[in-house]
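ok so dumb question maybe but i'm new to this and my supervisor (M.) told me to 'just get the structure for Small ribosomal subunit protein uS8' and walked off. so i did the thing. is this what she meant?? sequence i used:
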Amino acid sequence: MMTDPIADMLTRIRNAVSVERPSVEMPISKAKIGVAEVLKREGFIWDWKAEEAQPVGSLHIDLKYGNAGEKVIRKIKRVSKPGCRVYSKSKDLRPILNGMGISILSTSKGMMSDREARQQKVGGEVLCEIW
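this is what came out, is it supposed to look like this??
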């Protein structure tokens, strides 16, 4: 039994980027789809697709690299963990690396980046930081 599926997702992405894989697959969940959608909107991945199968579906993420093969995702850090949750108000959210990175938040309006949360003036649980 997996206790932290978001950490598993981030670790799979981190490992795939470190060996320069074009894509990565993992078990599907609504939270993982939300994180993948934020990564796509913010330009860290090309695309994602959900494959529903019985009993467990899978989430397929196409990773993004630069023209010369440079990594778009350089670092992924889990912030809020099952043993220590981290919450933040919208006014307390600060840009990651002066706007070069993002934080992904789970809010009452769904998963969103720190930029979107500041614009909509909504806070939530800070899941991870990516740059």
